[in-house]
Amino acid sequence: MTISLLSTFVPHTDGERAIAFYRDVLGFEVRADVDFNDMRWITLGAPGLAATVVLYPGSAEQIVKEGYPAVEFASTDLDADFARIEASGATIRQAPTAQPYGATNCEFEDPAGNFLRMQQA
Fold first, then answer.
1. Of the candidates 5, 117, 2, 19, which has an alpha carbon nearest to the alpha carbon of residue 51?
2. Global pTM?
3. Are 43 and 32 in contact (CB under 8 A)?
């Protein structure tokens, strides 16, 4: 089993300004720019690295209110990793579930209550 960082989620209030900062200032490449349910989701990453930053519409306050994950991990064996997480006594938000957008993932909390997601690699 291998767990690696897949994505971290950061809110944005202005997609163009966000892209300008992450692309032009930090040097990230835009990997996806998607309108979904009248919201703009922008995925960026450092050249040569698989991990991404997902910019989602909204403010930092919405992270807690609407439950966006702080971090998303990739797992080479989601069922086994989920079983280990569940056995640890962690708060489970969602067992491994096939999503309509094609991914299979689970959701849980770390000991401080941070919302985390893990996706089958």
1. 5
2. 0.72
3. yes
- pLDDT band at residue 65 under the 50/70/90 scheme: low
Query: Of how many residues is the chain composed?
Result: 121
| DSSP assignments along 80-115, one per residue | HHHHHHHHTTPPEEEEEEE-TTS-EEEEEE-TT--E
Name the CA radius of gyration of the chain, rounded: 15
| Tokens (6 digits) for 6 | 């897949």
Closest CA to 6 of 71, 51, 43: 51
Among residues 16, 62, 17, 56, the alpha carbon closest in space to that of 38 is found at 56
**For the chain, how long is the longest CA-to-CA vector?**
44
3-state DSSP assignment of residue 58: coil
